[in-house]
Write a structure and sequence with these properties.
Oligomer: single chain
Number of helices: 28
Radius of gyration: 38 Å
Strand content: under 5%
Helix content: 55-70%
Structural class: mainly alpha
């Protein structure tokens, strides 16, 4: 029994047989494949005894076993080979694959069982096990032997508290040669020193290509990227937290040329360029050719100037996300068919830039049909302006607005008349519209038809503007006042008139 305990505590020590008996030893090949949740370390520990010791009739015999699944490798102890094989078999790597791995990675052939077993355990501690571990090892067997792996694992597990997602770690270990992993911890700390909060660093690292963003870049390159982005009037760390993938891009060949397109479009205004970058950091994911191609298209097809294009980009940076062929070309062509010139197109797009981005099949075509159905003529300037207005509301909301007006006795022709004077009337909230129309009829004693002359009434705040001014003015002029004059004057002008009214009331009271 003492011999057995000795062998179990040190399975790799050489031992001679304690008995001269020639009785054959029982042995059965292990063919069980581990499930993704099965621990490789546990599997190897449990079955190692079957290969190194056998208790037979009270005597303990130690001998080298010859599993038929494992070829004998020259220059390496066969017990060690069997031990390593147990680890590999635990994640489903068969005989042929083991042989290929050992031939592909000679360091693995001569590594001790304890060393490889420890590396297995370290990888499992990061959440890499089962099928992902199988795929990682068969693709990059050097992860089991490279000395650069241990510092990386320790940093991720201890300093980053294991918050890097296992699939992200697998992608890193598959893509990067071990020599490029050196300094990974130092570069991550560099990001933290630049202001990325410690609670956000895992978010950043989980959303970048770690090989391109960290491993293949020097600390100097990372420093230059932060310096470059900081010149546009914002903290580089803020835009990187919003869009971590920015760290993937090469400064000289990607970031600088892409930003240069925007800088030239803004006539060298770095601050304005910074506003665009902060609003849509993803704009940097487009190539220089893509950005320049969209700018040239808007110049040539729509007749817009660089200043006008940049103003559109400021309010709607996603113009660069719209396909020239599927969205920009047909929609700008529609506006031109409606009789809009380049100046008209610019004014419409500044107010309704979503016209370029919304889905045609799921959104615009439905709204277009509704507008034509209530009386708008196709390919007219009025239709184009109405289409611009309804881009800021949903199809359901537009339908409800039209139904509400009809329920109050207004005709389709009346709705068209109102929306031509005040296009925004088609995008208001139906519940808010109903409250204002009720107050107009019941509270002010007016006719709903008065909206045809002043539809902008429906755009003012009910309590702070409409009710307040009506109650003040009613004391002087009674109920028959102009809605336009009541609401359209500025707050300052109305305040002066209110003071005069107060003075008049005081004088009347003294008499």
């Amino acid at each position: 029994m003492s011999t057995l305990q000795s062998l179990l505590s040190n399975p790799f020590s050489s031992s001679s047989s304690s008995s001269s008996s020639s009785q054959s030893l029982p042995w059965a090949p292990i063919n069980t494949w581990a499930t993704p949740q099965f621990s490789v370390a546990l599997y190897a520990t449990r079955h190692l005894h079957n290969w190194v010791t056998v208790i037979n009739g009270g005597s303990t015999r130690s001998r080298q076993l010859k599993p038929p699944l494992l070829p004998q490798y020259s220059g390496i102890n066969s017990t060690v080979s069997a031990s390593l094989f147990s680890l590999f078999q635990g994640i489903g790597i068969g005989e042929r694959e083991v042989e290929l791995l050992l031939n592909k990675n000679p360091d693995l052939r001569f590594s001790s069982f304890d060393r490889v077993h420890e590396r297995f355990c370290s990888l499992e501690s990061l959440g890499i096990n089962g099928v992902p571990l199988y795929r990682l090892i068969t693709k990059r067997p050097d992860v089991l032997t490279a000395i650069e792996i241990d510092p990386l694992i320790s940093f991720i597990r201890d300093e980053l508290e294991g918050k890097i997602e296992p699939p992200q770690i697998c992608r890193l270990l598959k893509a990067a040669e071990p020599r490029f992993l050196v300094g990974f911890d130092r570069k991550v700390r560099q990001l933290v020193r630049h202001g990325i909060p410690s609670e956000k660093i895992a978010h950043v690292l989980n959303n970048v290509n770690l090989t391109r963003a960290i491993c293949l870049k020097s600390a100097e390159e990372i420093e230059k990227t932060f310096t470059f982005l900081s010149r546009f009037g914002f903290r580089a760390v803020d835009i990187i937290i919003k869009r971590p993938a920015i760290l993937n891009y090469d400064l000289e060949s990607q970031l600088i040329p892409r930003v240069r397109v925007l800088v030239e479009l803004s006539d060298g205004d770095d601050a304005a360029t910074g506003v665009v970058l902060c609003k849509l950091p993803a704009i940097l994911s487009y190539s220089e050719e893509h950005l320049a191609g969209h700018v040239e298209f808007l110049r040539s097809f729509a007749g817009l100037t660089d200043r006008e294009i940049f103003r559109i980009v400021c309010v709607f940076p996603n113009v660069f996300s719209a396909s020239k062929e599927r969205k920009l070309n047909p929609r700008l062509d529609f506006l031109k068919q409606c009789g809009l010139n380049s100046d008209n197109i610019f004014r419409l797009l500044i107010k309704a830039p979503l016209f370029l981005g919304l889905s045609f099949e799921d959104n615009l075509v439905y709204k277009l049909c509704l507008l034509v159905k209530i009386g708008y003529r196709y390919r007219t300037r009025e239709l184009a302006i109405a289409m611009g207005a309804v881009t800021r509301t949903s199809c359901e909301n537009l339908q409800k607005v039209i139904e509400l007006f009809l329920s109050y006795g207004l005709s389709c022709e009346d709705i068209v008349t109102m929306s031509k004077k005040h296009p925004q009337v088609l995008q208001y909230n139906p519940r808010s519209l109903e409250e204002k129309m009720e107050y107009l009829i019941e509270g002010m004693g007016r006719e709903v038809e008065e909206l045809l002359d002043f539809p902008a009434f429906l755009g003012y705040n009910l309590d702070d503007r409409i009710k307040h001014r009506y109650e003040v003015k009613k004391k002087i002029v009674g109920e028959g006042m102009s809605l336009n004059k009541l609401l359209s004057v500025s707050a300052e002008t109305f305040s002066r008139r209110k003071k005069k009214i107060g003075t008049y009331e005081q004088q009347s009271g003294s008499k």
